[in-house]
Design brief:
By secondary structure, this protein is α/β, with parallel strands linked by helices. It has 12 helices and 10 strands. It has helices at 4-8, 16-38, 89-101, 113-116, 127-138, 170-184, 210-227, 250-259, 287-292, 298-304, 344-360, 397-406, and strands at 76-81, 106-112, 142-148, 191-194, 232-234, 269-271, 312-314, 327-328, 341-342, 364-369. Strand 1, helix 3 and strand 2 (106-112) form a beta-alpha-beta unit. Helix 3 (89-101) packs parallel to helix 5 (127-138), helix 7 (210-227) crosses helix 8 (250-259) and helix 11 runs parallel beside helix 12 (397-406). The longest helix is centred in the first third of the chain and has 23 residues, at 16-38. 43% of the residues are buried.
């Protein structure tokens, strides 16, 4: 057989019939090569489910060998809340780029059942959330997903008019939680927070109930682990509250979870230890001390129940720099005023002191600051002013505090 190599060294003066023979040989070799290549197995690249697709939970097999998720003891993130799904593609990209440039490595956001299954148990609307997950991955941000809130068709009979009404049936919520975990595990999402501030009547309507929440946590934990054995499931972050007829202080609610048998059904605890207008270093009675130092606080409750190996994630912390009421400052905290509003230097000081304490602990998980950017300029509510960035995009002093800590290695 003539080879191309041999052909290269032949005389230019070759009989005409020889050139035809060479051409035939080359053509045959080319056909054989095409056939061989076409029979090779294709490399399949998995793609995320299409937007709007309905994904049914798939049971894990007994041979599943997913490695456990390794979560850093300390990391810094932004609690973005429920606002990201409403952003345009351009605004979302800009927001997550900004969070990444801040030095954050995590973002916390709602996967809102009342949005995703608004029209019924058989219908799913994933498009906004798929977009967010894709953008977060683009900027190498890990996602803590908060599985929250109840669509109208799934609410309890005594509370029908608000998405924060508790679910009528824990198993329906758990089925949704498992579906979310299944959908996004291939895209790197393995951390899930079950509900938000259920110790408050404002977020578990009509009134807080630790036994009902413990059942929701239990069933959600089992449903998520069935879909993703590598998942980390954490309790809901708890809001600073006093115990009364409709709400529970965080320490009372958390202790009640253990009494309700919740111990095997969470991998870490979460808390929202807001202290404004005080610094968390203050010795007064406030939510940070109720988390970290009180003998009956959240950390000590975990230790007393044999859960010292579990971490406490701070999934919200911050202070508002606008809203109604007198402004609290470093020299005048205005403790008798309310709702509390701090000036920007005090916001930065509160955050700096919190980071100093956080870095001294060996029992904490990631720390999420609420929030990245002010939601607006309307002074009728302090909710608009928790950002590290003002509504116009300029940086508050607290921005620099966060960036310095987040980009400086732990000593």
């Amino acid at each position: 057989m003539y080879s191309i190599h041999n052909q290269k060294h032949r005389s230019r003066h070759v009989p005409r019939f020889s050139w035809r023979l060479v051409a035939v040989v080359i053509l045959v070799l080319a056909i054989i090569a095409v056939v061989i290549i076409s029979r090779q197995p294709h490399q399949v690249t998995s793609k995320p489910p299409s937007a709007g697709a309905v994904t049914s939970p798939v049971k894990s097999s007994s041979t599943q060998t997913n490695p456990p998720v390794v979560v850093p003891d300390k990391a810094y993130g932004i609690a973005a809340g429920s606002g990201l799904p409403g952003l345009s593609d351009t605004a979302l990209d800009k927001r997550l780029l900004g969070i990444s440039e801040l030095g954050a490595t995590w973002v916390r956001l709602d996967f809102d059942w009342s949005n995703i299954q608004a029209s019924g148990a058989s219908n799913y609307s994933w498009a906004s959330y798929d977009k967010i997950v894709t953008a977060a991955n683009k900027y190498h941000l890990k996602v803590l997903g908060i599985i929250t809130y109840t669509p109208a068709w799934a609410r309890a009979s005594e509370c029908r008019d608000d998405m924060k009404c508790h679910p009528a049936h824990a198993d329906q919520f758990a089925k949704f939680a498992g579906t979310v975990a299944h959908r996004y595990q291939s895209q790197g999402l393995h951390a899930w927070e079950i509900w938000n501030e259920p110790n408050s009547k404002d977020f578990w309507k009509p009134k807080a109930n630790p036994s009902d929440y413990a059942e929701l946590l239990k069933q959600s934990y089992q449903a998520i682990k069935q879909q993703d054995v590598a998942a980390v499931v954490i309790t809901a972050g708890l809001s600073p509250q006093a115990t009364n007829d409709v709400s529970y202080a965080p320490i009372d609610f958390f202790a009640a979870l253990y009494k309700a048998g919740a111990k095997p059904y969470f991998d870490a605890a979460a808390d929202h230890p807001y202290t404004f207008p005080l610094s968390p270093t203050s010795t007064r009675d406030h939510a940070w001390n109720q988390m970290a130092t009180d003998s009956d606080g959240i950390r000590q409750t975990m230790v007393h129940n044999g859960d010292s190996a579990k971490k406490v994630w701070i999934t919200e912390f911050g202070a508002p720099t606008g809203g109604p009421g007198p402004i609290s400052t470093l020299s005048n905290p205005n403790l008798d005023a309310g709702p509390y509003v701090v000036d920007e230097p005090l916001q930065a000081r509160i955050l700096s002191d919190a980071f100093t304490l956080y870095r001294s602990y060996d029992w904490v998980g990631p720390f999420f600051v609420y929030s990245y950017q002010d939601a607006g300029t309307d002074q009728s509510t302090n909710e608009n002013f928790f950002g590290l960035v003002r509504a116009d995009g300029t940086h508050k002093p607290a921005y620099d505090v966060f960036k310095q800590v987040a980009t400086t290695p732990q000593p």
